[in-house]
Amino acid sequence: MTSMPMLDVRDLRVEFPGRHGSVTALDGVSLTIAAGEILGVVGESGAGKSMTGLAVQGLLEPPGHIAGGEVWLDGRRIDTLSEREMQHVRGREIGAIFQDPLTSLNPLFSVGRQLIETIRLHLPLGRAEARQRAIALLAEVGIPGPEERVDHYPHQFSGGMRQRVVIALALAARPKLIIADEPTTALDVSIQAQITSLLRKLCKEHGTAVMLVTHDMGVIAETADRVAVMYAGRLVEIGPVADVIARPSHPYTRGLMGSIPTLGARVPRLQQIDGSMPRLDAIPKGCAFNPRCPHVMPRCQTERPELRPSGSGLSACWLNTQAQERAA
Amino acid sequence: MIVFLIKRLANAALVMLVVALMAFMIFRFVGDPIQLMVNEQTSQAERDALRERLGLNESVVMQYLRFVGNAVQGDFGISYRNQQEVMSLIAERFPATIELVLMATIISLVVGVPLGVITAIHRRKWYSEALQFVSIIGVSLPSFVIGILLILVFSVMLNIAPAFGRGDVVSIGWWTTGLLTPSGRAALILPSIALSFYQITLVMRLVRAEMLEVLRSDFIKFARARGVPAWRVHYSHALRNCLMPVVTMTAMNIGSLIAFALITETVFQWPGMGLLFIQAVTFVDIPVMAAYLCIVSFIFVALNTLVDITYALIDPRLRNSKA
Ligand SMILES: Nc1ncnc2c1ncn2[C@@H]1O[C@H](COP(=O)(O)OP(=O)(O)OP(=O)(O)O)[C@@H](O)[C@H]1O
Ligand code: SF4
Ligand SMILES: [Mg+2]
């Protein structure tokens, strides 16, 4: 990549201290997202997708904490900021979209009040201007009759409309990065495509970087520019979406792709690959995937593979290294 | 909804009839009313006349019905002790108790709600654990002990607040208030604190539990992700969502406070209904005891019914299933 990335996560490590020692929820996660780029993040449930987004936003639940690595946003390091400083990063520079629009909005406040609250927290606008902006935002996310709708309460909106309100809230202060954690999983299938294409359109228009977490490879294929594949708190492959889908390099990604019969299908479990992802406190030595990998070698059980260039992307697998060594 | 309302009101009426029955039985069968009302010199003829006049020769059922009929009209007969009408005795004492109870309620909310919020937000901090512990003591300490301790410290040792009586009061119609005079307000301090102690711990624990629940919800996490400052997330977004149960509990508790006030009023010689009742017990003043029982129960039942109806108004799911 030529220009400086908007989000640059380097070797991120997240730990949860517990009674029986520390659990490592994220281990050496490195990824970048450029301005205007959408990075899809996929992986089985519990792989650490949401955890990555929360760590970037500084929203890890104590005692969970960043135990190593760095997070840079638009050239500024943000993982070392104080909670007070992070309050100005959240909402202002990083917008968030949650999974369930039915529960993301405060049921007792009108959507206008929540929008105006967010706008005025981050932008130097008066009440009336903020209200105008709230109405404009509702119009921008495609809510009909925004002048009236601004005074309505969340329960007066349908699920899809509420997710549009959530997107408006995420975009309220024109953030540099949006972290969308399964933004369509809770929605009707018929509405999912509308929401993802809206998200894509708005981010392309404003040059916003997006981390799009999802189980749905169909959504990734249609929306993302690049895709990152996670397994047991680690990044196993990252690359341009077309290449990763057509020519997955990592054996885990291959299994993941193989288990998607059609676009739009969700991936609760991998049918192609036997076994299940290890618990975080019992991650095998070497490559975390080795007990399930059809290509496992002795080396895989002792040494952990690093992310290395592979095709147009990066992959963490000894097969890949072997091929390169052979070529060299 | 109408059906629910009728059911609920019928329920309340039934409870009141049972209470009235108990009051009546005390009235009728604890000792002979005639025996209690007359003295040695009264002739047998006079006693019979009195028996006739009080209707004690009618059947028990008739007497009970008449008792209920009179009670509904606020007529609980004549006090044995000072020959005054029971209802006017109670009306005289009622404002004192209500002012005490309302003050205690306000204190319990003003102190209990913030404590609940704080112990929920900082639940791992030492002071939250300490407050939780103290609240257990607060629940288990009898209120007369708290009252006596307060008197000991603030009246006897520090001499900064009066220990008994109601101070000067001002009449507004039949209502008398101590809130308008300095001595009346000073007199209210210790008894209302003593009475509110238990309530503070209840409010605190309820708010804490509700807050912990609400803080887990998505809209709180989303508010934080929007950059809303922590204090605002807690006191505006979260607390607002906890208030309904707090309001409910407060309404219900006013009833029990009136009943609890009995002990506090005795300790502080507060001229309220509770003190009246205690005096009635020592003098075996049956009509006053019966009236007190009926009135306190009525307040209880009325508040409970009101709360149930409010619930149903707010949550449509409760309208048909309950009652
Ligand atoms: N408080 C915690 N203490 C210890 N481990 C935790 C805690 N919270 C989450 N984890 C672990 O962190 C891991 C990553 O969770 P995360 O929510 O990021 O998964 P995910 O990839 O988003 O999965 P899903 O697709 O189900 O949303 C999980 O295995 C989870 O068990
Ligand atoms: S490193 Fe070894 S075990 Fe891991 S995916 Fe590659 S071949 Fe399989
Ligand atoms: Mg998740």
Automatic annotation (TrEMBL), chain B:
Gene3D superfamilies per record: MetI-like
This protein's GO CC annotations: plasma membrane
Topology versus the membrane: Multi-pass membrane protein
SUPFAM superfamilies named among the record's database cross-references: MetI-like (SSF161098)
GO biological process: transmembrane transport
Residues annotated as transmembrane: 12-30, 100-121, 133-164, 184-207, 242-263, 290-314
Domain (ABC transmembrane type-1): residue spans on this chain: 94-307
CDD domains: TM_PBP2
Keywords per UniProt: Cell membrane, Membrane, Transmembrane, Transmembrane helix, Transport
Localization: Cell membrane
Protein family: Belongs to the binding-protein-dependent transport system permease family.
This protein's name: ABC transporter permease
